[in-house]
Write the structure tokens for this entry.
Amino acid sequence: GAVVSQHPSWVICKSGTSVKIECRSLDFQATTMFWYRQFPKQSLMLMATSNEGSKATYEQGVEKDKFLINHASLTLSTLTVTSAHPEDSSFYICSARGATGRSSQGYTFGSGTRLTVV
Amino acid sequence: AQSVTQLDSQVPVFEEAPVELRCNYSSSVSVYLFWYVQYPNQGLQLLLKYLSGSTLVKGINGFEAEFNKSQTSFHLRKPSVHISDTAEYFCAVSNTNAGKSTFGDGTTLTVKP
């Protein structure tokens, strides 16, 4: 089945530094990937939709200059949290549509990245 | 616009008991419906989905869900739960065209021995 690999699974960084999170579709081409943020005991909040070869579409209230998204190939999307602050600490999850790219496939999720900014 | 309401934030049950996790949705267009499970510090895993056809859909791990269009519901059920079913469960709705999903707030299922 479709597999999405997310790396790293957890990261601790100092306030003011930048952190890059990678999301790879291992056995299918994902023209569209999605980035979510999840606070403890809460649901997923869609941050942006990442489209291969074009600019990401950000949800309202998400700072595009702070959360840089690059979808350089059909199998890789990256999220860079720039100048991270403690309030950016969260669980970040990526997902891609199923192998056919149709919304009826549902999403295949990465395993998530726990970011802690100290 | 579409929205999802999971009616129970927490559901505690004893092992081998049946369970139902409730989900209601609203949408002005046709939608696909999904249930996902999330174990601690992990991503989400698709349990089952409703696209069209039979209103009763079966998924992995013995779960099933029934789509009720008149009540705009998509409740998740399992006749006999195991300790290993303890997890967070999310109901989601996706616009058939746009593909972007909206998630409910989640239901924490805790199975006690």
